[in-house]
Amino acid sequence: MLSCTLFINLRFFIDWAEMSSSVGVCMELFELRIMGEQMGLLKVTVVQGKRLVIRDFKSSDPYVVLKVGNQTAKTKVINSCLNPVWNEELNFTLTEPLGVLNLEVFDKDLLKADDKMGNAFLNLQPLVSAARLRDILRVSSGETTLRKVIPESDNCLVRESSINCINGEVVQNVWLRLREVESGEVELTVKLITPVASSK
């Protein structure tokens, strides 16, 4: 069914291009259409947390829950630690345009509901824009800085973050400040893996 849909879309765009003599614009629109239908992958490594809040008697048993669209994944629990190191990779399949990566930290409890330890979010649009720039620049090897994102009032960044292309993969390392809590930061490494647009 997908191949049939793509063939119909291709036929439509080629016919339109022949009528308007705008082959370049046609192919760009068609490539964007394909990118929207093909499956990509968002790989998020939850690296570590720092200065997390106490939710038990003297410590906490933290774990992280990530959400992208309607997909949810969580890390393992680190017992009795306010500076946990997870180094755990969580993967999300991309079937719709990327928006926001939401993050929540919880304290695991056995006899009652898990306590909240703060939340944060990461806007994924700069990552998407960087992937498009990678295709325009035809970067496929080595390491290249594509753009930088600075802390602002509408994001949770602790410090400036670079988005790099490393051997064709678009990668962003971030420290996020937890909200609705006294203290706490979480480090993530985010990789956006999408088909590289072919150059003509």
UniProtKB/TrEMBL annotation:
Keyword set, alphabetical order: Abscisic acid signaling pathway, Calcium, Cell membrane, GTPase activation, Lipid-binding, Membrane, Metal-binding, Nucleus
Primary localisation category: membrane
SMART domains per the UniProt record, alphabetical: C2
A Gene Ontology molecular function term of the record: metal ion binding
GO biological process, one term: abscisic acid-activated signaling pathway
Residue ranges of every copy of the C2 domain listed in the record: 21-137
Pfam family membership, one: C2
Protein name, per record: C2 domain-containing protein
Organism the protein comes from: Crotalaria pallida
